[in-house]
Amino acid sequence: MTTTSLRASTGLSRRVASAAVPPISDLMHRALAQPHLISLAAGFVDQQSLPVAEIAAAAAALVADGELARAALQYGTTLGHAPLREYVLDDVLSGDRQTRAASGLSSERVVLTAGSNQLLHLVTECLCDPGDIVLCAAPTYFVYLGLLAGIGVRGVGVAADEDGLIPEAVEEELARRASVGEARRVKAVYAVSYFDNPSSATLSLERRGRLLDVVQRWSRDAGQPLYILEDAAYREMRYDVDDLPSIRSFDETGDTVVYAGTFSKSFSPGLRVGWGIVPPMLVAPVCHFKGHIDFGSAHFNQALMARAIEMGFYRPHIDTLRTVYRGKLAVMLSACERHLGKVSGVRWRVPHGGLYVWLTLDEGIDAGPDGTLFDLAVKEGMLYVPGEFSYAADGVAAKKNTIRLSFGVQTPERIEAGVAALAKAIAQTQHSAP
Ligand SMILES: Cc1ncc(COP(=O)(O)O)c(C=O)c1O
């Protein structure tokens, strides 16, 4: 059905009728329709280590005090639960080895949202008109690409490698846009700065300052603000490396970087508590826009999260998760070694955190949803995310011979079996090649 006929028959808005169906929803349908399939596709977290006892204790403590319970069950503010905003700010600053005084930050710059996805959405809507541009790594978080497409904003893929987004490539793309009269259309650079989804790359320390420099220089020269949207969703999910200071921590005036964080990966995605540390001039627009949408995300969940932190559950839980995921990652890497190590053209990045292993196959293999490998893999009993979903329509061309595997949700046995099934499917494409 065309967009026009869909609109005519349903009364849908132009924007919704033309929004693409999220690619992942088709994958999820396939997974649900065939429950025996081993899904290494979904970015869900480990089920067994979800903090059930901690939440039970925190909820009991929260509702034990009638007055606090009633306050938590009431609407909150648009910015969100004040004690949690204070905690978030101190936690990010302590990771960045900064004081409040040195950073110039206060909790008035912290806004709590329904997951960090909502923060990304709010900020992007505040900055971009239809036709505007956001530069992103190629590949990048495909949900964000879908968000951009849904509001008519153009994502443009910029070269990235194992050290993340390449600042010189950002600079070149900015110059290219200027040369075609689109300088004023570029509004932000989106960077997943820790253990990227899907590529697992972390932006190197040295590139953090340089990227900020490129963006701030461009802003000055172009005479209009260009922002960095720093998505730190996986910051706490590191397994064998030290933390790095955020890009935000290099932003001395605090005017350039929007920092998005979340408790989804480090505690529970079901609570959907995320946040942003927002430049001063964006606080009011983001709050006004959020005010029109929901005038505050679930207050009870924020109060519950704050209580879990006060009771000392959060940091130890992160330590537990690191042990769990370190183990699962090792299982996936040794399965890759065992089943894919000798397959011609297959290579993968060894992650130091996050939930994903990024595979590159032989150039001739199309791992996309319409290629031969995807159906063969489903027949063999496994599901993966085609890497091509993670490339913006514009900029660096999609690499169809790429795959994202997730080790978050499956058991070690199923991770092993899933990778073995993938290897069988790849072998069949190689046999069937002309
Ligand atoms: C890179 C990245 N950013 C943001 C999110 C959103 O997380 P949430 O909205 O649950 O905070 C995810 C979730 O998978 C992600 O992978």
Report on this structure.
The chain is an alpha/beta fold. The chain folds into 2 domains: 34-50 and 316-432, Aspartate Aminotransferase, domain 1 (Alpha-Beta Complex), CATH 3.90.1150.10; 74-312, Aspartate Aminotransferase, domain 2 (3-Layer(aba) Sandwich). Helices cover 46% and strands 15% of the residues. The protein contains 16 helices and 15 strands. The chain has helices at residues 3-10, 14-18, 23-33, 52-64, 66-73, 82-95, 100-103, 115-127, 142-150, 167-179, 205-222, 280-293, 299-310, 314-340, 372-380, 412-432, and strands at 38-39, 110-114, 133-138, 154-161, 164-165, 186-192, 227-231, 257-262, 273-277, 347-348, 356-360, 382-383, 385-386, 394-395, 402-406. Strands 2, 3, 4, 5, 6, 7, 8, 9 and 14 form a 9-stranded mixed beta sheet that branches. Strands 10-11-15-13 form a 4-stranded antiparallel beta sheet, covered by helices on one side. Strand 6 (186-192), helix 11 and strand 7 form a beta-alpha-beta unit. The protein is globular. The model has no long low-confidence stretch (mean pLDDT 94). Bound molecules: pyridoxal-5'-phosphate (PLP). Pyridoxal-5'-phosphate is lined by residues 43, 115-117, 141, 192, 197, 231, 233, 262, 264, 269, 274.
